[in-house]
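Homework help board

Subject: predicted structure for assignment chain

Our instructor gave us this sequence and asked us to write out the predicted structure in token form, then describe one feature. I got the tokens but I'm not sure how to describe them. Can anyone check?
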Amino acid sequence: MKLEKVINEIKGISGYIGSTILNKTGEIIYIDEDKTIDLAFSSSLFNDTFRTLTEASLDIGLTDLIHLEAETKEGEIFLIYANQTNTIFATFDSKGNVSLAKMILSQAIKSK
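My token output:
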């Protein structure tokens, strides 16, 4: 699945706030920024955390992480899906169709 198609699909989901795509070195190669959240900073921070958790998973004998989901008290939901090439970071409000977003992002990462 092409990254542009993935972004267009998730942008149409109710509750969508914004998204970024990072390459394997953590550089942002795409951003659809919402002004309420600093997505460049957020995605970089969450990507670093995701990579640290992946290392921890490998250290205990498990495999690479493929996704991470976090929710704030206020209801913002952060999704990270990654493969060897890219990381997709997307954020939604709590009333959004996060299940649909997770299905689309999961499929996108597997088909890379």
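Reply (TA_rk): Your tokens look well-formed. For the description, you could write something like this. The helical segments are 3-11, 39-59, 98-110. That's the kind of observation they're looking for.
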